[in-house]
C-alpha cells in the first residue's frame, strides 16, 4: 500500500524528494528511504537529479521510471484507425493513423476479421516506429470503437457500419495480432473517461456525456462508474425513437450513411444537420460548422437536442450533462445556451449543461487514460 501510494504521488505530482514523499504519505524518513530503494531496485523508480538553490545538502529527486511499461490507445471510425503509444507516465511517444474506409469495404467479401487485425496492427506498428519501440514492449492496448462488445457473446453490437469488426473472436484475434492484452471499449464511454479526468466533468460522479457527431451516443456515469447495460448497449441513444424521426431498424446503417435509418441520430447527427441547412435554403452548405452559422438551423438543432436530452434526464437524473462531438463543438456556446433554454420550464430535473473542452481526440485520450490505469494497477503491484 505504501509503495502504491508513493508511485501514485510520483505520477500525479512529478519528481519528489524522499522528504516530500515522506511528508505526503505520512511515512518516516527511514521507511521512505527503504521504499524508494525497493522501487528503484524493481525498476519502477529512478533518480532524476537534485533540488538546488536551497541551504544544506542537495536533496535527490525521484520519478516514475518511464520505461517501466508502455501502452497503446486506439480510436476507430468507419474510415480510419488512429493509434498512440505512451510510456507509463502518460507521455505520448508516437502517433499514427491508417485510413481504412476503402480497405474495410473491399474486405467484406474476403477474410474480414483477419483484415481488421492487420489494419489495427499497422496503425500500432506505425505509432511504435515513431516512438522507437517494438511490439514486445507493449503491456496493454485499449481500443475505442462505435458500438459495444456484448459480454455474453463477445460480438460487437450496435455498429453495423463497421463490418470488419463483427467477429465473435474479435478480441482474441486482435490480441494475437498485437501480442498484448486487448480491451475494446465503446468510443463515447472513453470520451466520458477523458472528460472526467481532464475536461468538463472533473469532480462529478454522476453525469451524462452526449456525443453528437456523425454518429450519436451517450455515456452514463453513475457513482463514478460507467453504466454499460446487460448487452453493452447502455447509452446507445442514437437508436432512441423520438417524434419527427423514423424508427431505427436493424441493418439500416452503413459506412456510407451512419445516420441512415431512424431515431435520435437521424435528428442531430452531423449529416442530418447539414441536410437540415439545405432544407432551410442553403444548398451550398457542406459542413456542420457552416450549417450552424444559420440562426434558424441552430435553433432547430437545439430543439432536437433538448428533446433527446429530456428523455435521458428523465430516466437518469444526472448532476451534469456534457455536450461533445462535432455538432456541439461547431455550435459552441450559442447552441448550448439554446439547448438550456429549451429545457427550461420542463417538469424534469435540471442538470448543469456544459460543453466539452477536451483538446485533441477525446476518444483517444480516454483510451490512453484507461490503458494507463489498468497497466499501472498491474505494474505497480509490488506485493
Explain this structure to me?
- Belongs to the ROK (NagC/XylR) family.
- This is ROK family transcriptional regulator.
- GO terms for molecular function: DNA-binding transcription factor activity.
- This protein is of the alpha/beta class.
- The chain folds into three domains: 2-64, Arc Repressor Mutant, subunit A, CATH 1.10.10; 68-189 and 362-379, Nucleotidyltransferase, domain 5 (2-Layer Sandwich); 201-355, Nucleotidyltransferase, domain 5 (2-Layer Sandwich), CATH 3.30.420.
- It contains 13 helices and 15 strands.
- The protein has a five-stranded mixed β-sheet, sandwiched between helices.
- A hairpin with a 2-residue loop joins strand 12 (216-222) and strand 13 (225-226).
- Helix 2 packs across helix 3, helix 5 runs parallel beside helix 6 (170-178) and helix 11 crosses helix 12 (326-343).
Features:
single chain, 383 residues, alpha/beta, Arc Repressor Mutant, subunit A, Nucleotidyltransferase, domain 5, 3 domains, five-stranded mixed β-sheet, 13 helices, 15 strands, ROK family transcriptional regulator, WH_DNA-bd_sf, DNA-binding transcription factor activity
Beta-strand residue fraction? 15-25%
CA radius of gyration is: 23 Å
Largest sheet, strands/sense/barrel: 5 strands, mixed
Q: Total number of helical segments? A: 13
CATH fold name of the largest domain, please?
Nucleotidyltransferase, domain 5
N-C termini distance: 9 Å
Principal-axis shape: globular
Structural class: alpha/beta
Spatially, the strands of the biggest sheet line up as: 6-5-4-7-10
CATH superfamily of the largest domain: ATPase, nucleotide binding domain
